[in-house]
Amino acid sequence: MTEEKRSTFREVASNRRAFHDYFIDEKYEAGMQLLGTEVKSLRGGRANLRDGYVRIAGNEAWLENVHISPYAQGNLMNHEPMRARKLLLHRQEIASLIGKVRQKGYTLIPLRVYFVRNKAKVEVGLARGKRQFDKREALAEADAKREMARALRRG
Q1: Are strands 22-32 and 85-88 parallel, antiparallel or unpaired?
Q2: pLDDT top residue among 67 and 72
Q3: What is the reported pTM?
Q4: Mean of the per-residue pLDDT values of the chain
Q5: List of long-range contacts for 92-101, beta carbons under 8 Å, 24+ apart
Q6: Which terminus of the chain faces fewer neighbouring Cβ atoms within 10 Å, N or C?
Q7: 40-65: per-residue pLDDT in tens?
């Protein structure tokens, strides 16, 4: 990441569980169509991506099942926490994703929500589900890496 981007980048929420449950083949950055109170709530770090997914309907992509908590000072103008939010992607990207998602076993999931130059973005991953033995294998690999790092530190 460049120095300029690092200074204007701020992560709000990440979906760490997605890396455990899925193989992430490709990543896309998309804007989100948000209401004012949703932006204020995101700035406070109040989002949960755990069960979220992306649905493509027609030529539009929608972020579903992502919880953005109501803004505390929002009173009557507050938003619905679990509403569907439109993703802002280029038409070519959506067309490409339609073809990829139709393949067996692929889905689109949100990986993280962040701000870049005061604009809310979501990183969407093209994911394939892991089976139980894949998850065990990934955990064993992570343990082996950790052990090697410890051995190198000890000398």
Answers
A1: antiparallel
A2: 67
A3: 0.79
A4: 89
A5: 93/28, 94/56, 94/59, 94/60, 94/61, 95/59, 97/28, 97/56, 97/61, 97/126, 98/56, 100/26, 100/126, 101/56, 101/126
A6: C
A7: 888 998 899 999 999 999 899 999 99
Domain 3-130: CATH superfamily, name plus number:
Small protein B (2.40.280.10)
Q: How far is CA 97 from the centre of its chain?
A: 16
Domain boundary assignment for the chain: 3-130
| Reported confidence tier of residue 66, pLDDT bands at 50, 70, 90 | very high
What single string gives the DSSP state of each residue in 25-56? Answer: EEEEEEEE---HHHHHHHHTT-EE-TT-EEEE
In the predicted structure, residue 5 carries a pLDDT above the cut 60: no
Closest to 56 (Cα-Cα) out of 122, 113, 105, 100: 100
